[in-house]
Write a structure and sequence with these properties.
Elements: E1 2-6, H1 18-23, H2 26-32, E2 36-42, H3 47-51, E3 54-64, E4 67-76, E5 85-89, H4 105-122, E6 129-133, H5 140-146, E7 157-162, E8 191-192, E9 195-196, H6 198-205, E10 208-211, H7 214-220, H8 228-233, E11 238-240, H9 267-282, E12 290-297, H10 306-316, E13 322-329, H11 331-343, E14 348-352, H12 356-365, E15 368-371, H13 381-387, E16 391-395, H14 398-403, E17 414-416, H15 421-435, H16 438-449, H17 455-470
Parallel strand pairs: 1-2, 1-6, 2-5, 6-7, 7-10, 10-11, 12-13, 12-15, 13-14, 15-16, 16-17
Antiparallel strand pairs: 3-4, 4-5, 8-9
Helix pairs in contact: 2-17, 5-6, 9-12, 10-11, 10-15
EC number: 2.4.1.21
Domain Starch synthase catalytic: 2-230
InterPro entries: Glyco_trans_1, GS/SS, Starch_synth_cat_dom
């Protein structure tokens, strides 16, 4: 079975969020199960591309509106990631450094999708499954059915994964003229409330759609930034499959980015060595419990209530708790957090920015991880934390609801219901009280680290879905 994963992110080539982690791991595990899986993504001028060798395997051109675009398809020579990686480069559109935030983003993603289809048609490549990830490639299920040039692929099955339904790729209808020529009688499949909506188009046209947790699928039926009725109406095509983690990269027993490796039997000693290193570097007391936040400073992550959480916890737990914040994002939230780091000289450390190595070290050093998310389709941070014996304190939403069970229910984490600083603080207080008993902490860590959130099970569910479609 030949499967192409289409995405604009893939770790470690280009990462902004959890989408990259999924696309960077799922195909590798599928190949281990006998699936011929590969990733095709836009070319970005980033470190991975500069550090690895690529062959140009194809060239072509097509008109995007009245503009002739030339493209190249590059393949990474060594299959370093455990699967074939293909990059599509288009001078002036798909040859930049950043993934997002360009004014002509719609033109970029249309060109990427057009170039992909042109490439596989020109080279008579017929995958069994085209697996599209998020709205950036949401027009593919429509174009393979209704584009005049690409109807040769109308029997190829398309799977669309919703990683975050809040972002839908809206574009004005003036972009319709630069799409590959299509059957204009089908224009309604592109339209939602007077705009071209690639996410809505994908849900209407794909053979199956998935969400990155079962809980998030249910939530999309109720609130999906205007598409909830569409998700519900197309529910017969839907499957919720929780994301996994790449245990070749996220495993404290073999992680080369942390100070001391450890397993369940050595977790107490291993975490203390990692905590001592981190606390020494950032001026914290290693004898105290360490609560951390890792992620984007964005409203959907609940980061806007993070300053209030810190302002309540530091005085309340003075001399009894350390807090570490690693992240960046919304300028207002970031400025507020920076101000807190200046105000609280004891008990708080902040790193503003993205630092993959430091994130591993924080997971290994921390006792607790807080995730006050408004929206969390799956969430990977809590899965990384559990693997490293770090206990999650999370809002009961989306994938967090599916993957974290509260200790009061016999589980291994702590939950709160609303995006509310007081509720979050109460959950942290409950967690601190519980883990103050060393036996409780040991049992929680063992329970957490014994959980299996590897990609094996989830990759298998995707393969079952593919097989069902091909039958």
């Amino acid at each position: 079975m030949k499967v192409f994963h289409l995405s604009v992110e893939c770790f470690p080539v280009a990462k902004v969020g959890g989408l990259a982690d999924v696309v960077g791991a799922l195909p590798k595990y599928q190949r281990e199960m006998g699936i011929d899986a590969a990733v095709i993504m836009p070319y970005f001028q980033r470190k991975f591309v500069r550090d690895h060798d690529f062959d140009i395997i194809a060239k072509g051109d097509f008109y995007q509106g009245s503009i002739l675009l030339n493209y190249e398809v590059l393949k990474e020579k060594q299959d370093t990631l455990g699967f074939p990686l293909y990059l599509i480069r288009i001078p002036g559109l798909l040859d930049r450094e950043e993934v997002y935030c360009y004014a002509d983003e719609a033109d970029q993603w249309i060109a990427f999708q057009h170039a992909f289809l042109h490439y596989i048609k020109s080279n008579s490549i017929f995958p069994d499954i085209i697996h599209c990830h998020d709205h950036h490639v949401g027009l593919i299920p429509f174009l393979t059915r209704h584009s005049i040039d690409f109807k040769v692929f109308d029997k190829v099955k398309t799977v669309f994964t919703v990683h975050n339904g809040q972002y839908q790729g809206w574009m004005n209808w003036n972009k319709g003229i630069i799409l590959p020529a299509f059957d204009t009688w089908k224009w309604g499949l592109l339209d939602w409330d007077g705009l071209i909506n690639p996410l809505a188009t994908a849900i209407k046209c794909c053979d199956a759609y998935t969400t990155v947790s079962e809980g998030y699928l249910t939530e999309l039926f109720q609130d999906a930034n205007g598409l909830q009725n569409l998700f519900y109406d197309e529910r017969q095509k839907a499957t919720g499959i929780v994301n996994g983690i790449d245990t070749a990269y996220w495993d404290p027993a073999i992680d080369a980015q942390i100070k001391a490796n450890y397993e369940i039997a050595s977790v107490e000693d291993g975490k203390m060595k990692n905590k001592e290193m981190l606390c020494s570097r950032y001026g914290l007391d290693p004898t105290l419990p360490l609560l951390s936040f890792i992620g984007r400073f964005a409203g959907e992550k609940g980061a806007d209530i993070l300053p209030e959480i810190v302002e309540e916890l530091i005085p309340e737990q003075s001399g009894k708790l350390n807090i570490f914040i690693l992240g960046s994002g919304d300028p207002e939230i970031q400025a507020h957090i920076a101000e807190l780091s200046d105000r609280f000289e004891q008990g708080l450390a902040v790193y503003l920015g993205y630092n993959e190595e430091l994130a591993h070290q924080v997971y290994a050093a921390s006792d607790l991880l807080i995730m006050p998310s408004r929206v969390e389709p799956c969430g990977l941070n809590q899965l990384y934390a559990l693997k490293y014996g770090t206990i999650p304190v999370v809002r009961n939403i989306g994938g967090l609801k599916d993957t974290v069970i509260d200790v009061e229910e016999g589980g291994y984490g702590f939950k709160f219901e609303e995006v509310d600083a007081a509720q979050a603080v109460e959950a942290v207080d409950r967690a601190l009280s519980y883990i103050s008993n060393s036996e409780n902490l040991s049992q929680l860590r063992e329970r957490a680290m014994n959980l299996d959130f590897s990609w094996g099970k989830s990759a298998g569910k995707y393969i079952e879905l593919y097989n069902h479609l091909l039958k």
